[in-house]
Amino acid sequence: MQDEPELEYAQLKEFFSFYIERYLKAVEDMAPDKRPMASLEATEKKSMKLAFKGLRQAINDCVEGSAHFAPAEVEKFDSELRSRGIVTLSELRRRYSKNYAKIIKRGDIKDETEYYLLRNVQNDPTQKTPEEIELLEN
């Protein structure tokens, strides 16, 4: 059985691979050994700690890079991810988004973009604490 960091790493790696395939078409023009997944796997061989750090940064880039996605696109992408057993974009936004953290800390929504971010997180079936659920509902 995998421990928690190994499980998290595997989940993030699956998401990153799918995200790249779906949204980063320029990757196809890169030399195979320079592609993000190849670079990640090369780093894994040197140091899992560095690979995990780099993967987290890449996930943060995905979260920030998807900020412009329309709510319907996020819902569709989340559905595709869920059907493949991959952690959803909404869940990763909850974990990694600086904007999400600011909204939660502030306790109120300032604009439509923040509303949809919270709505997608709220509608995502990923487990949340009772406090977080209550805050999202309010």
Beta percentage is: under 5%
Catalogue the unreliable spans: none
Mean pLDDT: 87
Largest sheet: none
Computed over alpha carbons, the radius of gyration is: 16 Å
Number of strands: 0
SS content category: mainly alpha
Shape: globular
For the terminal residues, how far apart are their CA atoms?
38 Å
Give the ordered list of helices and strands: HHHHHHHH
Q: Helical content, roughly? A: over 70%
Number of helices: 8
Description:
The protein is mainly α. Helix content is 72%, strand content 0%. The protein has eight helices and no strands. Helix 2 packs antiparallel against helix 3 and helix 5 packs across helix 7 (112-123). The model has no long low-confidence stretch (mean pLDDT 87).
Can you give me a brief rundown of this structure?
With 138 residues, this protein is mainly α.
Search tags:
single chain; 138 residues; mainly alpha; 8 helices; 0% strand; globular
Q: What are the SSEs and their pairings?
A:
Elements: H1 4-23, H2 36-46, H3 48-65, H4 71-83, H5 89-96, H6 98-106, H7 112-123, H8 130-137
Helix pairs in contact: 1-3, 2-3, 3-5, 5-7
